[in-house]
Amino acid sequence: MFSPNTSALARQGVKDALQIHSENWNEKYLGLPVHVGKSRKKAFAFVKNVISGKVYGWKERLIAKTGKETLVTSVAQAIPTFAMSCFYLTKTFCDELSSLIGNYWWSQQDKEHTTHWIGWNKLTLPKAQGGLGFRDMHAFNVAMLSRQAWRLIQHPYSLCAHILKAKYYPDGRLLEAQSAAGISYAWRSLLHGAQLVREGYIWRIGDGADVNIWTDPWIPRSWSRTVITPRGQCLLQRVSELIDPFSASWDEQLVRDTFWPDDVVHILRIPLREGAQDFMAWQYDTKGAHSVKSAYKLYVQLEKTRKDGGVGASSTIPGNLHSIADDSWKRIWKLPCPRNIQMFTWRLKHESLALRTTVARRGIPIEDTKCLFCSRGEEDGAHLFIKCKLAKEVWRDLALEKERSDL
Fold first, then answer.
1. Residue limits of the Reverse transcriptase zinc-binding domain (predicted)?
2. What pLDDT, on a 0 to 100 scale, did the predictor assign at position 37?
3. How far is CA 152 from CA 59, 143, 269, in A?
4. Most buried among 59, 146, 209, 394, by the most CB within 10 A?
């Protein structure tokens, strides 16, 4: 019932107030560990064991890639969802889960260790971007926790919010709370979600009394939600000071005198709500509602920005998380053919079939990379299925020469 950090005096006081005469210590409650010690791996080992049991059972059956895709997305990656919504499972542990699922995806019935022709980072991309839509387990974990943090912000008068505020951020906002020694692991986990919320929330202006002009994100702009104008010696502090109290509209002259032109354009476009309070909204949704889906996309985009050398701030994030530059991947999954043919075409476009050039590119010794049928060109996907002399004859026999030439 009590954490190990609770003093005996505090325990007795709570028990007396609630008239509890005896207490039991259960390792789990609703399937989750009651106490998470120093070893996170040990605490959440049950998640990996459940997935392993499923995977080992599937390996005994001959299942096509399309069937494996369903098992991975609908079963294996759904198992840790409840645990991920409450606790931060750590990046290392999530990578172990991903490795376990990846090994199953590329495994064959009679072989345990097989070549992974496509990296896991590509498999986790959306199908419209060349992946299979598998979850990045760590990104999904943080997105789930951000949902819990968002609920505390939107429902500050709930019992849970009252208790956490009284203990961890009594004099401030949840997004201003910092990690400290001695906090519970559940709260430490929520702070990971709160960090993601900081990257995606925006203030919607009512009377402007709660929003700081210089530090809060309130500018509806894709690359920077805060003002880019330096504060300098400006004495203005709150957004309410930029609003004309008589007309309840922006003091246009004051705005133009205070901010740079780009800030001015975006500020004057913000609608004001007379008599309404300022409120937090989620920038990456047209209705301002937070969702795990949009938070997941935001986290993936942030990580991509960091890996590409960006600072990882919201100023480097595109405003549209759903933009797709290349629609060729979409066309593969819309082909009027069986699903296994679509999967084969997807692998062909990725150059991940076990062709001679692909095998040689992966550093596997091979005597010759020439085409097995014509011995002229290099045996890659384009040659074997389109350019090879024998392949051309097949296309002609099927009366599909025009389609072949278009490829």
1. 325-395
2. 76
3. 42, 15, 30
4. 146
